[in-house]
Write a structure and sequence with these properties.
About 20% of the residues lie in helices and about 25% in strands. It is built from 2 helices and 6 strands; from the N terminus they run E-E-E-E-H-E-H-E. Strand 2 (about 20) and strand 3 form a beta hairpin. The longest helix is centred in the middle third of the chain and has 11 residues, at about 45-55.
Length: about 90
């Protein structure tokens, strides 16, 4: 399994949002968000897709229950992996 760029996905469980998957595989909430990446496929819940993709790529998903923290992440946020290439 290849590890993707997301180490930990932070999710507000009260949020669902339609979105799109670009031909490149990237997820977006904007219909025109795939302009240079090919045709966008419609998704009923982009948050659910982001959760599945994070788990598929070896990441962790943390559900945020605290109302103040939910406001800070605005539905979805990610902590990314970084590698030192030197």
């Amino acid at each position: 399994m290849s590890k993707g760029p997301v180490r930990t996905l932070l999710v507000d469980p009260t949020v669902t949002d339609g979105g799109y998957r670009c031909a490149s595989g990237r997820l977006t909430t904007e219909e025109n968000g795939c302009q240079t990446e090919g045709e966008a496929g419609r998704l009923p819940d982009v948050v659910d897709e982001a959760i599945e993709e994070t788990l598929r790529q070896g990441g962790q998903v943390d559900v945020i229950e605290d109302a103040q923290a939910q406001k800070q992440i605005d539905g979805l946020a990610a902590l990314l992996r970084f590698r030192d290439e030197s």
